[in-house]
């Protein structure tokens, strides 16, 4: 069982993180489709703060010796997946920007030819 101070700190952090994400969505800092994973993570953090035995049980099920090893491994995996997803998205956007710049250059070139 977690000490009360640690439990309270975890719960307050998880709740604050959840409220920060909700506030960011409301103020259009985050797009909802991009913030859904962060909402899910914050809800899982709240669940783990309220019911620490869930994290311990999951660690045992997946064969980890300690809960902290499980949580760290899960965090690394989630962040790697998110990074790959973001890299793919950035690549698509860069290609789209390059295409738009090329189209704009062609349009300006054609416009200059008409003006002459």
UniProtKB/TrEMBL annotation:
Entries under InterPro entries matching the protein: DUF2304 (IPR019277)
Keyword set includes Transmembrane helix: yes
UniProtKB keywords: Membrane, Transmembrane, Transmembrane helix
Highest taxon of source: Bacteria
Transmembrane segments: 6-22, 29-51, 57-82
UniProt name for this protein: DUF2304 domain-containing protein
Source species: Enterococcus faecalis TX0630
């Amino acid at each position: 069982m977690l000490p009360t101070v640690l439990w309270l700190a975890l719960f307050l952090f998880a709740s604050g993180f959840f409220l920060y994400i909700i506030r960011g969505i409301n103020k259009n800092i985050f797009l909802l489709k991009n913030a859904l994973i962060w909402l899910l993570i914050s809800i899982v953090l709240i669940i783990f703060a309220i019911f620490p035995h869930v994290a311990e049980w999951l660690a045992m099920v997946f064969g980890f010796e300690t809960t902290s090893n499980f949580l760290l491994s899960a965090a690394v995996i989630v962040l790697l997946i998110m990074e790959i997803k973001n890299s793919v998205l950035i690549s698509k956007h860069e290609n789209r920007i390059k295409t738009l710049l090329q189209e704009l250059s062609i349009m300006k070139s054609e416009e200059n030819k008409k003006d002459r």
